[in-house]
Amino acid sequence: MHPMLNIAVKAARRAGDIINQASRNLDLLNVSRKSHSDFVSEVDGAAEEAIIRILRDSYPDHAILAEESGVRGNIENAEYLWIIDPLDGTTNFLHGFPQYSVSIALKHKGVLNKAVVYNPNNNELFTASRGGGAYLNNQRLRVSKRIRLEDCLIGTGIPFRDLTHVEAYLKIFKDVIPRVAGIRRPGSAALDLCYVAASRYDGFWEIGLAPWDMAAGCLMIQEAGGLVGDLEGNDTFLESGQIIAGNPKVFSQLLQIIRPHLSQALIENHRAAQKR
Q1: Cα 59 to Cα 200: distance, rounded to the nearest angstrom
Q2: What are phi and psi of 208, to 5 degrees?
Q3: Which of 200, 202, 210, 229 is buried most, with the most CB atoms less than 10 Å from its CB?
Q4: Most confident option among 73-77, 236-240, 269-273
Q5: Quick check: helix, strand or coil at residue 270?
Q6: What are the tens digits of pLDDT across the range 158-177?
Q7: Distance (Å, whole) CA 96 – CA 118
Q8: For the whole prediction, is pTM greater than 0.85?
């Protein structure tokens, strides 16, 4: 395993230990609300600081983009940029719903290069390196081979932070439902994307994600042979927060269903992302 990936794994496991310990006493946690339906707990902060401490001990000159503490270093000109979500699925965690994860990705010269997503509930460790494949606990991952959408299980996430695009999302949802075998919304985008890489899902789409929600999972899918794009099929998903993912056949079919439902607000959001 590459040294930088090893460090990321160490950081993710340390964060997982903090999360597991806190999960035994959920009623004692200090919790605040960042926005509508978007919570943060002291565990998010403690896990994030543990991750950053480990990364900084090994790579003090690397820039960091973290969900809770924001930017550290010059991310515009950084050769290396770590993108961190210390607890993806905080609402699930606070309710004792066992679907949340630690997500850490590394960009090198603007390109996703390393990825770790760790599920501390069941000790599932997803890792990926650009050009080196994606793995679950050292087992190589491949996206599914299903080609008929009617046989497919599709993951999604309901936009809950910003309700601007709810109507467009519901139109897409209504059109996807009768065409697939099932739709799931567990509530941790990082894990959802890893499930596409592991062929547990055949595809996935969501609106309104942040870079730390997606970065690691997207590299997992690409290294497992899948495709990732925004709602128009382009590569600005990290900037726009709009994402479609899946094996190549499912990706193209989802894209055909979703495109006609793009609202003017979503299109403008996409165009703004292209200019960044």
Answers
A1: 34
A2: 90, 25
A3: 202
A4: 236-240
A5: helix
A6: 887 667 778 889 999 999 99
A7: 17
A8: yes
